[in-house]
Amino acid sequence: MWNRPRILNATANFLFAVAGLLAGYAGVILFVHLPIFPLRVVQVEGPLEHVTSEDIKTVVTRDLMGNFFTLNLPAGRAALQKLPWVRNVDMRRRWPDQLEVRIEEHVPLARWGDHALVDIHGDVFEAAYGGALPVFVGPAGTARELMLRYEHFRRSLAPLKKVPVQILMSPRRAWQIRLQDGMTLELGREQIEARLARFVGVYERTIGRLARRIDYVDLRYANGFVVRIPELRFDKLRSKTRQGAA
User: Fold this and answer.
1) Is 49 inside any structural domain?
2) Which range marks the domain in which residue 126 is found?
């Protein structure tokens, strides 16, 4: 091999080329890490109702380290998504010294039991919220299904001017709706939509004509439903009490 100048020259040229590439790479790495490319502007986009500029500033100051080139965008997204109301984050560099942050907030639709919220996409998240919201109660992992059912129930009951304030799905997948006026509708596990449609269809000429408050309607019957009128139960109890005193 040492007697072959062409091979020696080719090998030397190759090694010089590799050394040049390594030196160039090292120079680029050193150059982009110099403190001459500081991140000066963080521009936040998107309508924000719950996430404050102070929240974002705290995260940026604490978690986004480096200059324009070395900023770790995935780590920045992960840090911002830990904020309670943040659903999604998109981050982009804007030459020469800007970071563009687009934040999508959760839009609350309901409460998930008494410890969390459900957004309009069916995602469960934890955040403080003082507004009035319906309540979803169900097994873990069923929030999206309850969201879809709630939308159907709300639309179906709208012609009666009745508003659902609680949707409950039991572990056996039996459904129950509590309305704003205090009435509870028991739907059971089967033919949920058909049972509710039948109730809506006959309400005006049946329950709607009663001049009494109804607190419970059991719709789990093939050809009708059962209602419970609290004042009638009270009158019956009072009558029995009087007879016993006599």
Assistant:
1) yes
2) 108-235
